[in-house]
């Protein structure tokens, strides 16, 4: 017995020595530091008779904001003489851009005929003196920001291997119209539009994975009930109108289920229901409050808030109710968990100097504070996990802010009046 | 051989002890010193608020559309009940107020149905406060039923922090917003 | 191993436990060491290089002839010093000399080569001695010492390193990419195969851009043959893999 054990150990030792000797030469190429690529964005030049500098500048500014927020570039708007032969036929002279220290260049061209707008954008690698990306967009004048964002998405796809989130929009709650209603805006705050007009308190929106439907809690019948509606429609369908609260609905990643908190049986417990509200399946059994479910991207687990230990903490449970464990180990008062789309992080709100936004790994380690100015709540990840939207009370009323996932670049984006809270990213538009 | 086994048992025991020590640490953290302090402080402002509050439901009643159709006897003053921060259990003053309310509900307006609205102060996440308001309303409702008010006369609704009674961002305002209000619905 | 005999000694259990722990530690230590160096799949191919005509980083690094039992010994994989190698100018000379070499110049070069080889053997011996003294860890990347690759590898390395300085970008903590480069007889990058990566797409892209940038300036491999080599890209000071 002992002999065998020893021999196994010796063999293992010899074996690992042998593999060590087998590991061969390789050449290491290193460079210092992490570069922030310098990107020049030239407003698209007119092709044809209609010259509209405002239009060109607006597209360039939208891209500067998008690509600066991506965290991969320092993007600057730079004016340059138009290419005489147009974008398609001219040779781009890289030398001035190279000497000015730029790594990348975006140029474009637009045609405006009446209301019809065609834009072509090109991304150039100044260093390697070649074109990396060409995209043409056809539509209407009102789409111009969408065109700019769509190209920003593609720039990230080309240089970071995954499309950016810049064609996403943000669903949120605003009290601009007097009471809290659901609104929708571009991710950078432009083009806000009101969705619900119930005249009653409306809260906690979430969007379906296909980006077509929203669920939300509304008091329009006196009780906090969960409703569903398509963004393109005005029909609001009750999903859960059980006695007590029907709150914090969260769509599962495959769109088939909704996790929510119900207090029909006494205290507030976590349930999953089908997307029409049927077949409730209770996940938690406590004498405490359990709410704010956040699905893992693979749909197998749910992070949620529970005060079963006294103060509210974030817990994680399997989507079928098993395997419960506590995530946060700080002194309590943690809310609004949000699971990152890559599945590796959970962002949440922790009460310390007001509310602040934190992230931790899914094993609860690596807790990092991202915000410190004012009071900040309810983080939500963009589709690529690069950005977080949240609500902040730092300069007057609560507004929607965005930041990079490391907490840098915190910028107010909402332009609607009143309180603006509960941001949720829509999937990017295809 | 036996000694060897003993050694292994001891080792295993040590490892188990270490693991247990770690686990215990996590479970124990659940005390709330903050709330304890506030309980003491809040006793006064809340008492002061009550006389003011008593008059209010009378004034508000015309606003309640359901109430206009009801009998004149419903102009009874049902006291609002107040809570401590992040708590839904009833303080002594809350029990006293509920006893008075129960008496009124059993004698003066014996046929009225009531709705208990649970509210919170603005601290805490708004979603969590929905659950807390729900708990407060239900806690008051349960106490009323123990005092003899029939459960089918009482309904509850939580408004979380959405309908503060007093605007303001200090303890004076917050203490008046952590409440369960009575509304006569029929 | 030879004294293995069954005895019912009371201490045997304890010694066994101790020995198991020591072996385990050694095993883990070695696997850790091994983990430091990625498995490049295949051995670095060594090419014959005309030492006289090619630019040389340092005389030591010029030996294209590894010992036959080379593969059995732990090698020192090192980044050769980027020095005078960086100038591509001498290659023009190589192009010019190639065709007009007659038997006499060949003799001369052979003599020079032999001299070099003797010198190299000596310095290799010295180097191995120095290693023993300093206790250098075999298999450690980036250790200084004798590079057994070809000079063209060293030349490429310095080109890539220059280019990488301008493109390096990453979004993970410890990015790395193992790339197998195939360069055709005209000095064009024929194939770029990413053999291993920590999946940092931004880093992969920056490596790709560095290779493209380097390609603009590289000269063809010696003897107009196809060159193949494996390179590991990572940020400076990153110690994983």
Description:
- The complex is a heterotrimer of chains A (430), B (186) and C (241).
- Chain A is mainly beta.
- Chain A contains 5 helices and 31 strands.
- Chain A folds into 2 domains: 37-160, Rossmann fold, CATH 3.40.50.10070; 169-425, TolB, C-terminal domain (Neuraminidase), CATH 2.120.10.
- In chain A, 49% of the residues are buried.
- A 4-stranded mixed beta sheet of chain B has the order 1-4-2-3.
- In chain B, helix 2 packs across helix 6.
- Chain B is elongated and about 40 Å long.
- The termini of chain B are far apart.
- The relative contact order of chain B is 0.16.
- Chain C has one domain (59-233).
- Chain C contains 5 helices and 3 strands; from the N terminus they run H-H-H-H-E-E-H-E.
- In chain C, strands 2-1-3 form a 3-stranded antiparallel beta sheet, covered by helices on one side.
- In chain C, strand 1 (177-183) and strand 2 (189-197) form a beta hairpin.
- The longest helix of chain C has 32 residues, at 103-134.
- The relative contact order of chain C is 0.16.
- The model of chain C is unreliable at 37-101 and 132-149 (pLDDT under 50).
- At the A-C interface, helix 1, strand 1 and helix 5 of A face helix 1, helix 4, helix 5 and strand 3 of C.
Q: Care to count the β-strands of chain B? A: 4
Q: Identify the biggest protein-protein contact and residues per side.
A: A-C, 41 and 68 residues
Envelope shape of chain B: elongated
Broad CATH class of the largest domain in chain A: Mainly Beta
Bin the strand percentage of chain B.
5-15%
Give a short overview.
The complex is a heterotrimer of chains A (about 425), B (about 190) and C (about 240). Chain A has five helices and 31 strands. Chain A is mostly beta strands and about 425 residues long.
Structural features:
heterotrimer; A: 430 residues; mainly beta; Rossmann fold; Neuraminidase; 2 domains; six-stranded mixed sheet; four-stranded antiparallel sheet; 5 helices; 31 strands; C: 241 residues; alpha+beta; 3 strands
Write the layout of secondary structure elements.
The complex is a heterotrimer of chains A (430), B (186) and C (241).
Chain A: H1 2-22, E1 27-31, E2 37-41, E3 45-46, H2 53-69, E4 73-77, H3 86-89, H4 95-99, E5 104-113, E6 116-125, E7 130-140, H5 144-160, E8 169-174, E9 181-186, E10 193-194, E11 202-207, E12 213-218, E13 225-230, E14 237-240, E15 246-251, E16 257-262, E17 269-274, E18 281-282, E19 290-295, E20 301-306, E21 313-318, E22 325-326, E23 334-339, E24 345-351, E25 355-361, E26 368-369, E27 375-381, E28 387-393, E29 399-404, E30 411-412, E31 420-425
Parallel strand pairs in A: 2-4, 2-5, 3-5
Antiparallel strand pairs in A: 5-6, 6-7, 8-9, 8-31, 9-10, 11-12, 12-13, 13-14, 15-16, 16-17, 17-18, 19-20, 20-21, 21-22, 23-24, 24-25, 25-26, 27-28, 28-29, 29-30
Chain B: H1 2-28, H2 33-60, H3 65-68, E1 81-82, H4 92-107, E2 114-119, H5 126-146, E3 154-160, H6 171-177, E4 179-184
Parallel strand pairs in B: 2-3
Antiparallel strand pairs in B: 1-4, 2-4
Chain C: H1 12-36, H2 90-97, H3 103-134, H4 151-167, E1 177-183, E2 189-197, H5 201-215, E3 227-235
Helix pairs in contact in C: 4-5
